[in-house]
Amino acid sequence: MSPSGGIEYTTVRELRGPLAIVGGVSGIGWDEDVRITLASGEVRHGVVLDADRDLAVVQVLEGTSGMDPAGVRAAFSGSPLRVPVGTDWLGRVCNGRGEPLDGGPPVFGSRRAEVSGAPVNPVRREPPSDPVLTGVGAVDALTTLVRGQKLPVFSVAGLPHLELAAQIAAQATAAGEAFSVVFAGMGLTHADASFVRDALEERSASGELVLLLNTADEPVIERLLTPRIALTVAEYLAFTAGRHVLVVMTDMTTYAEALREVSAARGEVPARRAYPGYLYSDLASLYERCGRIRGRPGSVTVLPVLTMPAGDITHPVPDLTGYITEGQIVLSPETHARGVYPPLDALSSLSRLMRRGAGAGRTREDHLDVAAQLLAALARSRQVRDLADLVGRAALSPTDRRYLDFEEAFLRDFAHQRNDEPRDLDTALDRAWRALLTLPRGQLSMLPARLLDAHGAKDLDEPDGEAPR
Question: Residue 124 and residue 106: Cα distance in Å, rounded?
């Protein structure tokens, strides 16, 4: 008998990678929590992945290294894996299983909740509204994040996506309302984990952050658990404690690769690029846990970060993520090569819910008009740049040359900021106006005349016109 009074099984038939195959079992269900005791007395934990007749496939969270099947005892709890939830998580730094890394005691909570969770019931889902301001000017102005939204960051290896994720986690706010951040790092190097801890130290000390760090040398199974624990903690902070919570999850490609590895160990038939056929539903089970619930305070907003192998946006992970989420923030190697941070590809980025959280009464009256004009002018400037590569700048019209000046002002004055610099939305929009005013007034057709008059827009190509300094 186990200490909890349940039956302990000793018939471990096989160890396969991170999996243990336990035979002779009965009454076992999926997702059950398992307590595994080794001959040495060491205790490990597992979750039931599959149960068929008298066999149970158990994923061992700490891995099967050093386990001898002959000396292993497995006790099934009869219920899914649960973690304590409560405000005690705030200010804590833990590993991917929720065990403390900060030298403090184990995290306790007012109750325990299943980490598997469930998507928000569509009938009770409240439409997202009001912004979450990230403190990154280009993101807030052009792809505004809305409370309850899921907005991924698409990047490639070598770009500063981790720096951007840490900066957003350190700076994000919800217009003075109670706000918390849950940061889930998956498959990080020790150097990256140390960087994240240092970057978020101030927010953690203020009791506004929960930090879960899974490093690359830890068991692959833990990587699957990390985002689920993060979301379980966030749901309590939002829907019970009444906070607006931002969940930053990086890197979801690493998560998907862990899922592929476990799927291969289970002997499942692979689908696209050897990922399991249920990759879409698995990602959706995470992303759809965000939102707002009618009649309850708070919100859960999700910002997943993922790298696109070889920059391929049709790769299964970004492709399926794009179907589930409401837009994307795309980082550009070309912009990064020009020394701009964050290297946002504004024309490929989109927040489909931006109009619900921006504009008069929410951000600023001119916000949506300025964002639309910026994107239109940027699209024209890229066409002009392609033309200049063919015919040379000297062959361009005066207006076309203004568009090249605009692109430079857009990148240097508007988009670029330091990775430790919080930039409020008013400052970002004022910088956007300065970039736009490098263009003739006649080219700013998406802005109302009263706004152009208020900002002193001129037709710069007239003889008495003068470019603003």
Answer: 34
